[in-house]
Every structure is written in structure tokens, then in C-alpha cells.
Please model this.
Amino acid sequence: MQPLRILTWHVHGSYLYYLTQTQHHFYLPVKPGRPEGYGGRLGGFPWSNNVYDVPASEVKNLKFDCILFQSKRNYLEDQYEILSDSQRRLPQIYLEHDPPREHPTDTRHIVDDPDVLLVHVTHFNQLMWDSDRTPSRVIEHGVIVPENVHYTGELEKGLVVVNGLRSRGRRLGADIFAHVSQQIPLDLVGLDSEKLGGIGEVPHHQLPAFASRYRFFFNPIRYTSLGLAVCEAMMVGLPIIGLATTEMVTVVENGVSGYVDTDLEKLIFRMRQLLNNQTHAQNLSKGATQTAQKRFHIQRFIDDWDKTFKSVIGLNVVHQ
Model:
């Protein structure tokens, strides 16, 4: 398959970094001041030479094979602002990162077009969205961690990785983190985590080694897609503790790779077990790594996206 020329926006930095591990060429529109969605090759990621920043005003003059939307604003506003009429007739994919917010089962997706492919990052998301006549498929996450980083679990603490936890409230489990951290030693990492007594941001490329020393990874999020931080922690080998909601119940097997439950007291009990028994944590670590290698390997992710791009472009007969 020859490399394709794909226009997309910088919406989720970590996901974009993994997506650009494919052989294709990705063009990111940028605006002065780099406002939301127009940040391009923002710092913190080792972008490869197949990722290009392009001024948003010049996008109309470039040739692409596919338009990849990643947000509501991309689809409803940005395409009409920066794309030409002919570019808007190119093959289109909408990458949906989240489950429905307004209502978990009865929310119609904004894309209502049989000629646009809707790609979900989890089967839970696909199950919950009402996409009606819009075709959809699932491409599960793929992640990379350095080969020389391995779980040690030497710190008798749990690690939580959530950006903006204080401002994002109950959905991301700010109250759950507060409740559990009163009983269990937890370190919080992420944007603005200092406001909750956390450590702050850890650069993406440093996070695997940083996380490897913690006894377990705790995910307090009630309702969202499966976080890339969970997948990365599993790939390093951290036992995962989390809520038995959304896609988490299909990823973490109790007693094998960690524990999930809807009863916080049971989860706290499991955390204490891991803090008091490093051998048990090491056993769960092996299960976590095996699960991640099987389910979130970057080559599987790349292959899935290659097949998707090929199918969309092959089915669409209108080209620029």
C-alpha cells in the first residue's frame, strides 16, 4: 500500500502520535497562537518525518487522499472553513474518541452520512452511540513503551494519570480519587494535577519509566473511553485497578491482570493487598503485560488503520 496523504487535526496528542506510526503522511493545520485543534506538531512527542504542519490558510491548495475528522468542531465547522469544495468530496473518516455524553443509549451521532466511515476506539462506544445509517467499525488502541522499561513495583503507592481531574469532576472520578486517596497512598499525574496535591505533568516519553516503579495503576474514571494511559500502564506491566464500567470490564481480568469492581471498598481492599504483597503484584504484572501485548500491540493498530484507509479510499469513487 502506497503512503496516503491524510489531513487531520491535533485533537488528542497521544492518539495522534500512535496513529502517525503508520507509513502514511499526515498534514496538521495550524493557526497563529496554535488554538485548540490547530496546534500541529506540539511539543512532548517525538514526531516522525511523516507528520507535517501546514498553515490552515494553505490547506485548500494541497492535495489529499482522505480527510480524518476527530471532533464535533472539525466536522461541523472546521471543514467548511479550511477545506475547498472538492476536498470536502474526498473520502472521509470520523474518528470518535468518546462515548455519548447527553444520554448513554439514545444519543444520535452528529455524523449522519452513509458515505462517511465512523471509527470507534472501543466496542463499548460503538454499542452505545446511535449512528443510524452511518457505517462504523472499531479500531482498538495500540501503544508503544520502550523495550528497556519493565515493571518493578518498588514504590508502595498507586499511580493515577488523569489530565484536569479537578475541573472534569464526577465523570472522571475526582470524588472517587479524593475518597480513595484518604485511605490509600496515591500519586496523581497529569495537567493541573498540582491543584489536587498531584505531581503535575510528566512528559509522554518519560511516563512509562516513571510509572514502572509504582505498585499498581488506579483508574478512577466512571465514564469515558478506555484511556491510553491504562493501555500504556498495562504494557509496562502495572496491575490495573479500576471501575467495572465502560470498556474496562473487557480489558482487566480479576486476579489475572488487576481488579475491577463497582464497589469502591472492594477495590480499596485489593489495593491494600497489593501494597502488602509484592509477589501478588508481580503475578498480576505478568497478566497485565500479556493482555496488553495481545490486545494493544502497535502493529495490530497500524494494520487495522491501513485496512481502514484502504477500504474507505477504495470504496469512494470521487477524487480531487
User: Anything to note?
Assistant: The longest strand covers residues 155-161. Residues 315-320 have pLDDT under 50 and may be disordered. The radius of gyration is 20 Å.
